[in-house]
Amino acid sequence: MKCFVFCVLALVLASSLAHAAIVEHTFNVEDISVQRLCRQQVITAVNGTLPGPTINAREGDTVVVHVFNKSPYNLSLHWHGILQFLTPWSDGPEFVTQCPIHSGSSYTYRFNLTGHEGTLWWHAHTSFLRATLYGALFIRPRQGHSYPFPKVYQELPILLGEWWNANVVEVEHNATESQGAPQQSDAYTINGLPSDVYNCSQDGTYEVKVKQGKTYMLRIINAALNAQHFFKVANHTLTVVAIDAAYTNHYDTEVVVVAPGQTVDVLLRTNQPRGSYYMAFTPYHSAPAITINANITRGLIIYENATSAKPVMPDLPAQSDTPTAHRFYTNITGLAGGPHWVPVPRHVDEHMFVTFGIGFTVCNNFSGGCSGSTRPLSANMNNESFVLPRGRGVSMLEASYGGDVDGVYTRDFPNRPPVEFDYVNPNVSSETFAFQIAPKSTKVKTLKFNSTVEIVLQNTGIITTENHPIHVHGFNFHVLAQGFGNYNATRDEPKFNFVNPQIRNTISVPVGGWSVIRFQANNPGVWLVHCHLETHLPWGLAMAFEVENGPTPSFSVPPPPSDLPKC
């Protein structure tokens, strides 16, 4: 069965390349000055726009993006949700699959879209620079194919962003120096605009004109750095048809929940009286003990020949409404048998139980003191706090390809935490005390090519419980089950959905709870797994998979491109 799967994949890839287009873009990354919230602010952007350019392509196409870094910062770009099958050098996370593109240098990303269809996006993978370096990547069905739902009148991009009245590189630097939480953002944006709820922004609200009696598809992307969000459109029901570029059974809902890194495609039927209706985002704040930007943002949907002068505002959920968030996340099911559907692999080769959460780090040369809430923050997975291998001369993928990983990373990431305890209990005990301070390391888990991996992702409450979006590079995965409390195999395995589970690339693990995911490691390379809250990767909430080469060169990591950036 496994041989059949990856052999068919190779044949499909070869066929698609013979009948597909090349979609080529040039990205000039440079600093520009923009007016937001009553002031001019210098930001780093692509081609002078915020958000950056939208890439429009079809399933099976090949995308080529020439990146010229004219900014003062070293950086890389990631194509979020693209599997990068046999193109791992284009995945993008700095020091993992490549060294950063130095200021004044360039690099060309090349990747194929076979098996991809739906809404994805791209962003900087250089920490806080993704606040302004991001854009949409829309993959439509190939010519002659159609969506598995009725034809829509128009597709509308809805990109949620986060805005700072500050240089975001300095925001990150100050947080790193203090080893604490970063400065809160000043606004959320829709398609780069903060909306009329903010000062000096009456003309800075995203608006879209619609016709009554039509069906529109909203392609929703959460490009914010640190907050999940609820989304509603006043007086309209939304129908979810896809998540993370994977089709779903139709799910009607009044509210959508989307975590940083995730995408949701919904159908909006303009069946209300002619008027103006706000669409609005409000943060989902799963951990009240942690301070976040609690502001909303909103845009306008205006019916043609609208008669209502005052827009209708939706009744938004409470920001701590975990039951509503959990209901949305767990009620969605995959479109079994639909386009690009992959059945759940039933035999499991690798069982992993991965705890993760926020803790503290050792107080070395820290000016803030080392007691109580002043202790510097850290994060970990299975009590290992991940460190990017800066200053090693090569990326992790280069080290793996060259066969010499000494001094870059080690292959001993544990399958389980070192001790078992009451993971979601915030009260410190002798068992959890050691978990408060996790050692810094750069560890990977090595996987045999085509092995099937099942991971229980278990939140911990060492400092506080929080809903964490976990992104897996290089793979889509099935979400078999989710729940609250500590995972219990006897109780929870009977809940596994093997028939039509969600397929995702970013899973929002419930606050004080767990999720079980499963995937087939059929993509050789080094693949980062991390929390998509931007504060948490620098703190260490990450690990990586090293997937071994397959049985032939056709299923092996190819040589690095000639223009791969040097460290």
UniProtKB/TrEMBL annotation:
Residues 1-20 form the signal peptide. Its cofactor is Cu cation. It catalyses: 4 hydroquinone + O2 = 4 benzosemiquinone + 2 H2O. Its main location: secreted. GO terms for cellular component: apoplast. Residues 29-143, 156-305, 413-549 form the Plastocyanin-like domain. It is found in: Secreted, Extracellular space, Apoplast. Keywords: Apoplast, Copper, Glycoprotein, Lignin degradation, Metal-binding, Oxidoreductase, Repeat, Secreted, Signal. Binds 4 Cu cations per monomer. It comes from the Eukaryota. Gene3D superfamilies: Cupredoxins - blue copper proteins. One of its GO terms (molecular function) is hydroquinone:oxygen oxidoreductase activity. Its EC number is 1.10.3.2. GO terms for biological process: lignin catabolic process. Lignin degradation and detoxification of lignin-derived products. PANTHER family: LACCASE-7 (PTHR11709:SF9), MULTI-COPPER OXIDASE (PTHR11709). Belongs to the multicopper oxidase family. This is Laccase. It comes from Phaseolus vulgaris (Kidney bean). The lineage of its organism: Eukaryota, Viridiplantae, Streptophyta, Embryophyta, Tracheophyta.
